[in-house]
Input
Amino acid sequence: MCQIVVTEHSDLLVVINSQAEIIDSDNIAGRLRAARNAMGLSQRDFAGLGGVTLNTQHRYEAGTFPPVEYLLRVGEAGADWYWIVTGRRIGDALSQEETAFLDAFRQMDDAGRAALLLVAQRMVSNTPQANSVTPVSMALHDGQSDYKGAK
Output
């Protein structure tokens, strides 16, 4: 469950699964701008998605807290409203190891990502493709094969 509350001091308090966190409006403004840019939209176009004027969009991107209704409207249009507010993606419950892996994956070029994805898929399925090279049998010190598919 997620609740968003503006406190009497104009701080934004986000409560997610009974854990409260105060959110800085400058961070929201930056993430809002980043979300708009990621969608390739001008401030005017993004304002239209949110049902506000261009002037209001300027204010939101300058640090004024946007109302929940606005966030939901831009969310329906494809922006990640949860990330805009909290800085976390829905489903961000990744371990440090998973996060490091994803960071490395995102830094690879297209060929590197494709190769890594293929390796991961093969490791999961543990079945060589029909047209792939047959793995070489490897022997341990006792002469036993350590690759279960080898003869």
Residues 96-125 form one domain. The longest strand covers residues 2-6.
